[in-house]
Amino acid sequence: MSLPNTKINDVLISSVQWLVNQQSKDGGWPGLAGRKSSTLNTAEAMIALIDSGKYTGGNEEIKKAVDFLTSHQIVDGKFKGAWSREIPATTNLPDVIRTAFSLEALLKAGVGVNAPPVITGIIWLISIQNKNQDDKAWGFRQGLPDEILPTCLALLALIQAYSFSSRVSNDAKKIRESIDCALKSLKDKFRGDGFDGKLPYFGSSEILKPTHTLYAVLVLQSARRCSITNGEYLELENKALEWLQSQNEFQPIEEHIPIDLDRDNPQWDYDFQHMTDTLLIRVLCGSDHKTFNKDNQVASKAFISLGKRWHQSKGGFFGYWLFTWSTAKAISALSLCEKGLLFPPSPESTLLSQNNIFDYLKLLLSLGEKWPKWKGGGLVTIGIAIGFGIATIINSQFNFNSLNLVVILLVIAPIVLAAYNKRLSKSFLAFIAFSIVVILIISNYISTRTLNMLIQGVVDHFMKN
């Protein structure tokens, strides 16, 4: 959680330093410390460091990352120019998402549009763009129907390439043609009508509508700033922003990426993690809409959501764990904000506050005093919970579901002990171990908000009694 007097610039300094410290000797970044470097994680880290304004293409860290990306590009064959999903096999598995992020990272690092790694990547991206009557953008792999995520990411990369190119060159004209076709597909195919046809959103997946709409708006904003789009697209952007204001939840979410060519045994598909709060911050910082700005309620929720996932002492941001990609996305979003602004903590009293854990420890001790037969079980459970917390912190795997688990243990153990009215026994310790397993399983299927509500309900009950 962030402190009340923490400025965004201070958060950025801490987060940037943490991210830089995660760079591997090969110049790339892994998703999680100690793992193998990934082109996707490396590209995201490069983009974030350059977005922060604290690193440029001239820094040694960025130079090493450029070398890492270019050394992992496919350099021959029918997939020449693409970046592949890292798999332990000799077969290349080209990925639109990795290619789009890598192109954006190289361009931001100062690699020219006409440099071989960039222009071959652009050529490959344009070559796999759908060109039939129904589909004129990108699917997750060549030959698949248009999908909104690969379309938006490819467009963001191509728009950036177009902005760096000579507008009169043949390459620039081809890039512009590709952009225009894909923008038309985005406008005509992916728009939906919510609220009885009154307000537009993007995408058809109910759970991904806010996320996909945010990506579409980022594309429209980028195209507008590059003078590619006209008033028709600006109206569409503003209506999408109005629809976003009606949404209440902007939680992290996964999207399945089906890129494996073997659909009978698609073992190399993967899930892409969206940090929707960071997308929302990027959108609102790039918006000229009169009611969609950083001061409104939706914006406040996004900052609070992001604030809950900042690890103060280390500087990184949590995804499920303390990931480089989640930190990179947070840095890119916060870099667009005014650096003197305070990074707001949650105004609500929730169990997501690490400081509040001590209040619940006191609550358990007070329960022990009120019902003496609970005291032994409460103290032992506190020991177990603290041990669990210390172990996860040491392993850099402490997140807020872990905190919820600790608090649940603190609340549930004395209740069970009182119910059975027995002395501490092996069966009770077995129950604690079983509770850990069950709650961990449950936490994978229900949201943090739901866990908070369950815990708060139990605590409120005992506070009243």
Description:
This protein is mainly alpha-helical. The protein folds into two domains: 8-334, Glycosyltransferase (Alpha/alpha barrel), CATH 1.50.10.20; 357-464. Helices cover 55% and strands 4% of the residues. The chain is built from 17 helices and four strands. It has helices at residues 8-21, 39-51, 60-71, 96-108, 116-127, 148-164, 170-189, 209-225, 231-244, 276-285, 297-307, 324-334, 357-370, 372-394, 400-420, 426-443, 448-464; strands at 191-194, 199-202, 253-257, 270-274. The strands form two sheets. Strands 1-2 form a two-stranded antiparallel ribbon. Strands 3-4 form a two-stranded antiparallel ribbon. A hairpin with a 4-residue loop joins β1 and β2 (199-202). α8 (209-225) runs antiparallel to α9. The longest helix is centred in the last third of the chain and has 23 residues, at 372-394. It is globular, with a radius of gyration of 25 Å. The model is unreliable at 345-375, 393-400, 420-425, 445-453 and 455-465 (pLDDT under 50).
List the helices and strands and how they pair.
Elements: H1 8-21, H2 39-51, H3 60-71, H4 96-108, H5 116-127, H6 148-164, H7 170-189, E1 191-194, E2 199-202, H8 209-225, H9 231-244, E3 253-257, E4 270-274, H10 276-285, H11 297-307, H12 324-334, H13 357-370, H14 372-394, H15 400-420, H16 426-443, H17 448-464
Antiparallel strand pairs: 1-2, 3-4
Helix pairs in contact: 1-12, 2-3, 2-4, 2-12, 4-5, 4-6, 6-7, 6-8, 8-9, 8-10, 10-11, 10-12, 13-14, 13-15, 14-15, 15-16, 15-17
